[in-house]
Amino acid sequence: MAYERFAVVRVPFPFTDRAAAKNRPALVISDPQAFDMQAGYSLLAMITSMDNAPWPLDCPLTDLVSAGLPAPSKVRCKLFTLDHRLIRGELGRLAAVDRERVDHALRRLLGFAVECARAADDHDPGREAIRAARSRLKQTQFDHGEVDRIKREGRA
After folding, report:
1. Strand duo 7-14 + 21-28: pairing
2. What are the tens digits of pLDDT across the range 28-58?
3. What is the Cα–Cα distance from 109 to 111, expressed in whole angstroms?
4. Tell me, what DSSP letter sits at residue 43?
5. Residue 70: alpha-carbon gap to chain centroid
6. Fewer C-beta neighbours within 10 Å, C or N terminus of the chain?
7. What is the 3-state secondary structure (H, E, C) of 59-127?
8. Interval 75-119: pLDDT, tens
């Protein structure tokens, strides 16, 4: 079974000093169609208590009820893949404001500039400005055949 992106799921986290594991929440960050369903795995990010020491790009969660979490938590950009058979259930889903914060952190983590992501959107004003500038440039460029014709007619 594949889980939707931004689903909060319960997964077994192993202890490094013993053979046991404990159930912990994690966030699905991979796309089910692009990766999860084909691989049988999901890419996940850790979710940890707000009490834990900070980590680069931590994302505090504001809507714990939607996420299905009982205590103040944050998404930690420590990523891992996990076989779907090991996921022990869905707890909830991130609210829109939390999804945006996590998405922004993941783009920074992976080195994608936010501006580049926005430029991919056809409705982005920056993209429209680029299209308009290209159009003006095309209007000022002469076709070589047109330039030759003007020269032959003696207008140049």
Report:
1. antiparallel
2. 999 999 999 999 999 999 999 999 999 999 9
3. 6
4. E
5. 25
6. C
7. EECCCHHHHCCCCCEEEEEEEEEEEHHHCCCEEEECCHHHHHHHHHHHHHHCCCCHHHHHHCCCCCHHH
8. 999 999 999 999 999 999 999 999 999 999 999 998 875 445 445
Q: Distance between CA atoms of 101 and 49, rounded to whole angstroms?
A: 17
Query: Which residues are 79's β-sheet partners?
Result: 45
Instruction: Give the residue among 12, 5, 25 at the shortest CA–CA distance from 71.
Output: 25
* CB count in 10 Å sphere of residue 10: 14
In angstroms, how far is CA 110 from the centroid of its own chain? Answer: 9
Can you tell me the distance from the alpha carbon of 123 to that of 83, in angstroms, rounded to the nearest whole number? 37
Query: What is the Cα–Cα distance from 156 to 84, expressed in whole angstroms?
Result: 72
Answer whether 0.85 is exceeded by the pTM.
no
Both structure tokens of 37: 């369903």
Nearest residue to 25 via CA among 7, 1, 38, 50: 7
Q: Apex CA 68: angle with CA 62 and CA 71, to 5°?
A: 60
Token pair listed for 32: 């089910």
Terminal C-alpha separation, the chain: 71
